[in-house]
## 1
Amino acid sequence: MASASAFEYAPAPESRSVVDIAPSYGLFIDGEFTEAADGKVFKTVSPSTEEVLSEVAQAGAEDVDRAVKAARRAFEKWSALPGSERAKYLFRIARIIQERSRELAVLETLDNGKPIKETRDADLPLVAAHFFYYAGWADKLDHAGFGANPRPLGVAGQVIPWNFPLLMLAWKIAPALATGNTVVLKPAETTPLSALFFADICRQAGLPKGVVNILPGYGDAGAALVEHPDVNKVAFTGSTAVGKAIARQVAGTDKKVTLELGGKGANIVFDDAPIDQAVEGVVTGIFFNQGQVCCAGSRLLVQESIHDELLDSLKRRLSTLRLGDPLDKNTDIGAINSAEQLSRITSLVEQGEAEGAERWSPACALPSSGYWFAPTLFTNVTQAHTIARDEIFGPVLSVLTFRTPDEAVAKANNSQYGLSAGIWTEKGSRILAVASKLRAGVIWSNTFNKFDPTSPFGGYKESGFGREGGRHGLEAYLDV
Amino acid sequence: MPTTAPALGDVTASDSTLRRFLHGLPGVDTVGLEARAASLGTRSIKTTAKAYAIDLAISMVDLTTLEGADTPGKVRALGAKAVHPDPTDRTTPTTAAVCVYPDMVATAKDAVAGSGVKVASVATAFPAGRAALDVKLADVHDAVAAGADEIDMVIDRGAFLAGKYMKVYDEITAVKEACGTSARLKVIFETGELSTYDNIRRASWLGMLAGADFIKTSTGKVAVNATPANTLLMLEAVRDFRAQTGVQVGVKPAGGIRTTKDAIKFLVLVNETAGADWLDNHWFRFGASSLLNDLLMQRQKLATGRYSGPDYVTVD
């Protein structure tokens, strides 16, 4: 979808040869790869080509039980290690991730469909950074502000989504191990491969058996893990619907829970904003990872006085986005993760049109195979539209207007979600005034979708509870 | 005198209207601007696109010598190189121009006669710009009379930083008038001395309002010259100016661009910011002296598959 130009960039595909994907993978339990107890397997496909990448063992309840038992056995020794010893393993894992980052970036792009540019420049550096960061905490837990000698919880059951497979794994596993917990993690059924490669990295790092267990599988495996009586801590990132089910499941037990759920982030652009950078921020906010980001800035709230000007700039900018082969280094927009997700996006967009919002996409040829959706924006959207309320989890931006800062705050907060928000203005006092009134876990000013291991992340309202990242992220894995 | 395009109203009517207009331009967020420039710098340009980009970049070079020690011999050698950048390969495009001091214009004109290569001259008390307006205008008249096709003028940074925008505006319009119809005017801001991105955006609009045919980053004589970020900002300014007035203005980053890799990054900025309409040496130039040889060596490498080395390009 490059702009018409004499300067057409030649294809610049990243080499697939840096990654060696086996035809089949097992579950990773107690330091070994093993078949599922009932022998079930499923296929994982590349969303950009629909090519089958590998066949993966599918965990069931029996496998969950085996893995939790292994984690329980490992917990005794792992939690008794001095923090400085655990730190050594985590530093080793972080370094191996850095050394293998090109391989992991290509793998993630193949399995997830997101552009190599993002896996290479955003995901993998952050994955390594999380392990480094929490490795640094492992021997300093006495000084984390939770009192002397805070205790780990035990076995952590972790369920992660498909949008940032390896990064969400890092967010979950790094703090859990640093604080002395052991882990059973279920990656999403559409993106199991990078977690299985991570299992190999654990072996490479000499991590004791059973400390990390990886169980690819579907929702039933996730449910079995959450329900397992010997799991002490449940950490979930994913949809609000599943999050609610998990909350019901663990209610009345002594399990600790953190939930990172959906979002409908408001990106608020005031009339004195740095317009060119705001346009970039809006693009980053909603088209990063094809909008499949829980903290995406999917609602653009623009001050009415600059609406037309901003929309012109935004449309011009969208016309320069390059959609296509995610392994091409020049690709900005990759494939949607699955056929199921694509149909969800499609139906919500159709609903937006039916409810009277105005749909626009740049002229854009979509590849013939794979799951693709052109970057889309809707104008004339109001708070009453479904597309202003429901999380679409795709490259679809809803544009609303406001007249005053108070109205901006009221509209931004008028959502069942509260994960992220953005404020664009050159006026520093306005940033502080507005930010203090927004009900969202992360608020960016004059930037968007910036992540750092030192910064806590989490939501208000139906976006979940608990924090990941930073010192706060330790609390979720400690008995405090 | 050029008049302001009607779309903008009478913003140059007085000191205060001009100030209000320039200070009312959208702000620039430093972090965001530099991040965008850096991200465009990661575009991977290969094979046919690279060959195209190298030839385009060569055709956009203002081959420059601006030394106190410049002699006719040096200028003639430079002119010859501009006409035939690579004597071993006559398919190499000519450069856009040679850029010299005013007293060398006649020599340069002679050296490039008949080739289509333009002669640009840095007039207006280059590089400091610290002289009376009469002196600057005399400098321009000299250069134009000697046949200069393009005048590169420096603005009075002192006046700009002191907030005397009207003084800067008046100087540019006077120089533009002195250029007459025969010479195009490039206005140099010396972005390193203007220091902030907000200032660079204001200077860009000020220059365009005053009738600049080109806006140019720098003289190449200070510590910070052209950068991807300040060039990106100026490309946004010309793009927005054309959208509002219909008038297209060129952009010339100058100083510090030494490698093919850098030059291609700038072309990517042009392509994805202002657009393909600027991918032409009528609208985009590189002010550079050492860039050309690297472009030529990379061009030879694409043609032969081997990297030849500095002895295979001329030293001029």
## 2
Amino acid sequence: MATTAFEPVISTGWGQPQSWTMDSYKKRGGYKGLEKALELTQAQIIDEVKKSNLRGRGGAGFPTGLKWSFVPQNNPKPKYLAVNGDESEPGTFKDRNILTHDPHMLLEGIAIASYSLNVHTCYVYLRGEFKFPAERLQAAIKEAYAAGIFGKTLLGKDYALDVYLVRGAGAYICGEETALLESLEGKKGWPRLKPPFPAVVGLFGCPTVVNNVETLASVPHVFTRGAAWYAGLGTDKSGGTRLICLSGTVNRPGVYEVPLETTFSQLIFEDKYGRGLPAGRKIKAIVPGGSSAPILSPDELDIAMEFEAVKVKQTMAGSGGVIVMDDTTCMVRCLWRIARFYAEESCGQCTPCREGTPWQTRILRKIEEGRGEPGDVDQLYNVASSIAPYPPIGLGNTICALGDAAALPTHSFLMRFRDEFEAHIREHRCPFGDKPWGALGDWS
Amino acid sequence: MAELLFTPEEQKKFDAQISEILSHYPPDRKSAGMLPALRVLQDIKGWLPPEGIKLVASALEVRPERAYEVASFYVMYHLKKPGKYVIDVCTNLPCALRGAEQMLAYLERKLGLKAGEANALFTLRETECLASCGTAPCLQVNEDHHDNLDRAKLDALFSKLS
């Protein structure tokens, strides 16, 4: 349970004039966390992060301090920090806001992390489509160099730190940490077999920490306000607040910073967040944590959007992407859209994923278009099971989790909405006709 | 070869930007600059001509096949010359729930192109997740992002493209 009164941490600057400049960031207390961190030893910094209960915000929720402590400091090779800004799981769009509105918060986190890990070169890997956020971040990096925060000195301390921005070129798989490293090394984004983990053998074969944008943007606050304060904002196992991305059929989609005990119902219906659904619509299902997370039904929404609580429902809080589907929505079409995504984004390295993801897509398209045949639903289940069996026990049959991510939604949609799939096949048409998403906007 | 591909100004720009990129990596890791280097080529020529890919490979001291392998893996690199405007319309689930499929159909009628087709002016593509689900529907024109679109906004945007 939270012991500190809730207040927004990451999003305080959003919407303020020129919030992306160093001037604005410093007026809000920016770079004070770095000053405080530089008074500590490198090991003490990692201890503070451990005490703060900060967990990775990229999806897996791994404890950040622990991750940092895995970097072997007796290894003579250089150490690297790679920032994962390859945000592109459908339903997840929080890093875009951090990069656009408050890039210095990320840079301060980078400086603290780099110093504590003995890192002298950091690469920020942003998805290629983020042209504008990349421009904002590049301008912020330039300001930080000019202010002596990066470069030959670290805020006046004799410690060299270079930060380079690298833009990807359109591949979701590069958000997987080892694919990201491959891409940073100038290759196609093929995930690596683990172990060895990047903390030991990462970029250029050297120890590397890969952290998400939101994770690093949280780090300065652990030092400005203290680890105990930060931990107190969250639950026993997870410190701080969370950015939740709300999308789909709600009146006010967007990114909201919430206390971890906030429930899905509160997020969707409360005035300060989603403000409910358009008149006459009801929730049919929601995706609780990015498109790979198994769906929840309307009677399961009174649970906290927090890693452990969501896990009880056999799904995941993931990267905080909540997608709302209303009762005018065709679930076959929803799953087809999700399946298409994974088929497009499969890197092609493992056979079950390379062959299975387009196969899922073809069956779903056939069913949605009224060409489905008896047996198709079972075949869909079998194909998904060949990519990753259900229930998931660790990784499925592929090197990385993209295979699992492609199979999990299929299992969950079939479990909860099998009738709808069968109805498509029985009636040789989509029961929702040409309005599978309800009528939205005037595009006639 | 280089004279045919680049004008002297372009050559100068290419060389300067490649050397800036290489300064970001250890000297024995020149090939790491592949993604940014290909982007430089695409920024200058509008696409990745085969001779250009060879030049990038040579600057990074790798075989051309390696550069081509990377160029063909990522969707933002154009291996064929695209239309003047590359339109990427997101139709993934969160966008679709907010009318993106209808928007794409409208755009197809408006431009007289199906998704995946191109003419001299436009290349129209259906794309996967632009991470703008809260401001859907959205699209990008030559990587410039436009969101919260409705018919009037889309018409206004396209009236400026010629």
